[in-house]
Amino acid sequence: MLDKVDLDIILLAGRYTLLDPQAEPELIDLCEQRAIPVIINMHDVELARRFADRILGMSQGALVYDGPLAGLSDAQLKAIYGGQDWLHS
Q1: Strand 10-13 with 38-41, pairing
Q2: Alpha carbon distance 8, 28 (integer Å)
Q3: What is the pTM of this model?
Q4: What is the pLDDT of residues 39-55, one digit of tens each?
Q5: Which of 15, 39, 40, 67 could form a disulfide with 71 if both were Cys (CB 3.0 to 4.6 A apart)?
Q6: Which residues of 57-88 are buried (b: 16+ CB within 10 A; e: fewer)?
Q7: Which one is predicted more confidently, 82 or 14?
């Protein structure tokens, strides 16, 4: 179904897992095959860790982090999320 769609970029708000569960892997494969950029507004750090190449982290309207996933530290995540100790140990 999605292979017939002509896309330059995909913008998603929240978790895209709210899509039909059968369409989710197809969407991910399509984006990887065609090198289609996907911009997702999400708060699910673990999901971002699975799929993101680049992270932009914001706190109170200010950009706190802009870079590769590998460079995102626990300290930066705490800054993004207001210093809350929600991180997994």
Answers
A1: parallel
A2: 14
A3: 0.64
A4: 877 777 877 777 788 88
A5: 67
A6: beeeeeeebeeeeeebeeebbeebbeeeeeee
A7: 82
Residues contacting residue 1 through CB under 8 Å, at least 6 positions apart: 23, 26
Q: How many other C-beta atoms are found inside a 10 Å radius of the C-beta of residue 15?
A: 13
Exposed / middle / buried, residue 27 (Cβ in 10 Å: 0-12, 13-18, 19+): buried
pLDDT over threshold 80, residue 23: no
First to last CA, the chain: 41
d(CA 9, CA 15): 17
What are the helix and strand counts (H, E) for the chain? 3, 4
Helix H or strand E encompassing 28: helix 23-34
